[in-house]
Amino acid sequence: MSDSIILGIESSCDDTSAAIIKGNCILSNIAANQAIHKEYGGVVPELASRAHQQNIIPVVEKSITKANIQQNAISAIGFTRGPGLLGSLLVGTSFAKSLAMSLNVPLIEVNHLQAHILAHFIEDANPMPPQFPFLCLTVSGGHTMIVLVKDYFDMEIIGKTIDDAAGEAFDKIGKIFDLDYPAGPIIDRLAKEGNPDAFTFNKPRMENYDYSFSGIKTSVLYFIQKEVRKNPDFIKENLNDLCASVQRTIIEILMAKLEKAAKELNIKEVAIAGGVSANSALRKVMQDYHEKSGWNIYIPKFEYTTDNAAMIAMVAQLKYERGEFTDMKTSATAKYDL
């Protein structure tokens, strides 16, 4: 890995983030979160892009200061081109282009989903990086997929959700329980005090390695409506058990397909990535599979699970070594295949 210094910029959703990487060592990883979306129970694209415009300069400045480097030491600038919210992506893309032009350094586009997976190659992400080929369960608020990773830039999606992402299911079910947004971390916390076997919810029967999470959401909704008619305080009185039961069901759905893929493809190197990989119960189940199935498992540090610029900088570093630079005419794209 070269000693080039790369600035990574991430703005795909509602977090504005900038990071500096040298080789595969992160020197800084700064993020500004947007609390305003809590009021609306979800990310409002127009508000997100406005907040990125306010946050991007201070976040980039802070990342350079914390890394203790001079701006002219930057070798290249990596940015998230997609997928994500177009307005948010445009802010990061435009800023990255302008700064690259002013510093006269190369520009490197990064696929956000690829970055979640390749975050495992950051020096302090894991004690050891995964060995190729490996399977990566990439699971977040916007995406749920099983990816067969044959090399850094040779990836194949072998299974994906046909409707809601797992993180989206957590948030929508959280809304049914009258929890704040984002509900995933709240459900994780409350589930620790609950009985995961208290309630049973429907699991989908999907072909191959594909997922579906709309069914569990509907199953929970109908169950809650029925119980609340009998007891208006049902949710409040059973909240911990409800959260634990929902969490167990979603994780069982995720792991059943991952286990099937690992067995059928005879792969023991298994990783998780994306925002939902921060879930404590999912991390525990992954550890259990290490004992049960002999998997070599890779669970990223918490700071590399949610949207962050460190993972963007890592991919940019790998592309920099290969001389894969981006034309200044490039534009942000809401959809960007892996």
TrEMBL record:
Recorded superkingdom: Bacteria
Requisite cofactors: Fe(2+)
Residues annotated as binding substrate: 138-142, 171, 184, 188, 279
Keywords from the UniProt entry: Acyltransferase, Cytoplasm, Iron, Metal-binding, Transferase, tRNA processing
UniProt cross-references to Pfam families, sorted A to Z: TsaD (PF00814)
Main subcellular localisation: cytoplasm
PROSITE patterns listed in its UniProt record: GLYCOPROTEASE
GO molecular function: iron ion binding; tRNA N(6)-L-threonylcarbamoyladenine synthase activity
Co-factor: note: Binds 1 Fe(2+) ion per subunit.
Compartments it resides in: Cytoplasm
A GO cellular component entry from the record: cytoplasm
Catalytic reaction annotation: L-threonylcarbamoyladenylate + adenosine(37) in tRNA = N(6)-L-threonylcarbamoyladenosine(37) in tRNA + AMP + H(+)
EC number annotated for this UniProt entry: 2.3.1.234
Domain Gcp-like: 26-313
InterPro entries according to UniProt: ATPase_NBD (IPR043129), Gcp-like_dom (IPR000905), KAE1/TsaD (IPR017861), Peptidase_M22_CS (IPR017860), TsaD (IPR022450)
Residues that bind Fe cation: 112, 116, 307
GO biological process: tRNA threonylcarbamoyladenosine modification
ATP-binding found in the keyword field: no
Family listed: Belongs to the KAE1 / TsaD family.
Primary role: Required for the formation of a threonylcarbamoyl group on adenosine at position 37 (t(6)A37) in tRNAs that read codons beginning with adenine. Is involved in the transfer of the threonylcarbamoyl moiety of threonylcarbamoyl-AMP (TC-AMP) to the N6 group of A37, together with TsaE and TsaB. TsaD likely plays a direct catalytic role in this reaction.
NCBIfam families named among the record's database cross-references: gcp_kae1, T6A_TsaD_YgjD
UniProt name for this protein: tRNA N6-adenosine threonylcarbamoyltransferase
